[in-house]
Design a protein that fits this description.
The chain is α/β, with parallel strands linked by helices and 387 residues long. Helix content is 43%, strand content 14%. The chain folds into 2 domains: 5-13 and 258-386, Aspartate Aminotransferase, domain 1; 17-254, Type I PLP-dependent aspartate aminotransferase-like (Major domain) (Aspartate Aminotransferase, domain 2), CATH 3.40.640.10. Strand 3, helix 4 and strand 4 (118-121) form a beta-alpha-beta unit. The structure holds pyridoxal-5'-phosphate.
């Protein structure tokens, strides 16, 4: 491979060198089952508990409120199934949005088939939830409100503290999928008064296949995976000790670097945005506009009269990895439901590209994109008008 620039950090991140070092040192020696009572087991358990402490510090909660899962998808499913279980017994409904991650959107479809009532609040063109519409959907029968902290496609940040207060005013529980926000902004279970939160290790430079569920002390809990007594019966299955340990190291790094990291990401994002707007005609920047409402490293752009997939493939040939809006449905050429939910024209949605910057990107990467992208768009537009 020649020069390769990875600008798909919202899909997944490279593990931090500190995480790789920690897990490669632990892997050969810590192989006991963390549930075993002997020395090997206790050593494994020690790493799991160290990680739990780090995560609790990052999320501003108690270690006992943290359960390790396989990722945010599993955590999101667990939270919604807890709500289903309550609704099955006592009635009620769930309120969420139209722009959640597929692990919630598809769970909503499944729950509706099971007879559960779920309402989805719309968003504005800037990707932010329509608070007036959300309020209209509230009522005393709402069991759970679930709104993501930061959107994986547009980068729009939602006012979670405010939404949480609204949910509680109606006696509902509040969940947020904070997967994209971790390490990029302050996330506080306490300050936001959350009941549940989801996140995933590989989105903040930790290992893949390991995630977190925060459930506030005293809130209902039902396991999705039944079996052994791991996690106090909340999530059965032998501990993925090394991955959990790695997630803990990543959590510690994330907490240390939030201010500096978000500042750096925003500077690169703005340079990229300005560079594209100055050098490519007929483009639209999708989603958030103001610094405080944006995930700092995310830039979603629509190019008129070009297919996002064609841009992605041409950029890949030039050594630049990005994604189209429909990243989670690779293989299908469906435009992004998130962009359509924001009211974007379907043609423009087809021409969208998401650039997501991360810890290992530099200004030179951004300048290279600004150099390579304009001729690619020109060429694709020539081809499409000729066709
Ligand atoms: C990536 C992501 C998920 C899913 O995480 P997994 O690790 O694939 O389970 C959920 N929500 C958001 C917002 C994400 O970006």
């Amino acid at each position: 491979m020649g020069r390769m620039i990875y600008l798909d950090n919202n899909a997944t991140t490279q593990m931090a060198p500190e995480v790789i070092k920690a897990i490669s040192e632990a892997e050969p020696v810590v192989y006991g089952n963390a549930s075993s009572m002997h020395t090997f087991g206790r050593e494994a358990q020690r790493l799991v508990e160290e990680a739990r402490g780090n995560v609790a510090e990052l999320l501003d909660c108690q270690p006992s409120e943290i359960t390790f899962t396989s990722g945010a998808s599993e955590t999101n499913n667990t939270v919604f199934m807890i709500a289903k279980s309550i609704i099955d017994r006592k009635g009620g409904r769930i309120v969420t949005t139209t722009i959640e991650h597929p692990s919630i959107i598809e769970t909503v479809k499944y729950l509706r088939k099971q007879g559960i009532h779920v309402d989805q609040a719309p968003v504005s063109a800037d990707g932010r939830v329509r608070m007036d519409e959300l309020e209209k959907l509230m009522g005393p029968d709402v069991v759970l409100v679930s709104v993501m902290t930061g959107n994986n496609e547009t980068g729009a940040i939602q006012p979670i503290k405010e939404i949480s207060a609204l949910a509680h005013r109606f006696g509902a529980m509040m969940h947020t999928d904070a997967t994209q926000a971790i390490g990029k902004m302050q996330v506080s279970c306490k300050d936001w008064d959350l009941d549940y939160l989801s996140c995933s290790g590989h989105k903040f430079y930790g290992p893949k296949g390991v995630g977190v569920m925060y459930a506030r002390k005293g809130r209902p809990f039902e396991p999705l995976v039944h079996g052994g007594e791991q996690e106090h019966g909340r999530r059965a299955g032998t501990y993925n000790t090394i991955a959990i340990y790695g997630l803990g190291v990543a959590a510690k790094l994330a907490k240390e670097n939030i201010a500096e990291e978000s500042h750096r990401l925003w500077a690169m994002r703005e340079r990229l945005r300005e560079g594209i707007l100055a050098n490519v005609p007929n483009v639209v920047v999708n989603g958030c506009k103001e610094r405080e409402n944006c995930l700092p490293g995310t830039l979603d752009v629509s190019f008129e009269n070009v297919e996002g997939e064609s841009i992605l493939l041409m950029l890949d040939m030039a050594g630049i990895a990005v994604s189209t809006g429909s990243a989670c449905a690779t293989g299908s050429l469906e435009p992004s439901y998130v962009l359509l939910a924001g009211g974007l024209d379907i043609e423009l949605a087809h021409g969208s590209i998401r650039f997501s910057l991360g810890r290992f990107n530099t200004m030179e990467d951004v300048d290279y994109v600004i150099e390579v992208l304009p001729p690619i768009i020109r060429r694709l537009r020539q081809l499409s008008t000729r066709g």
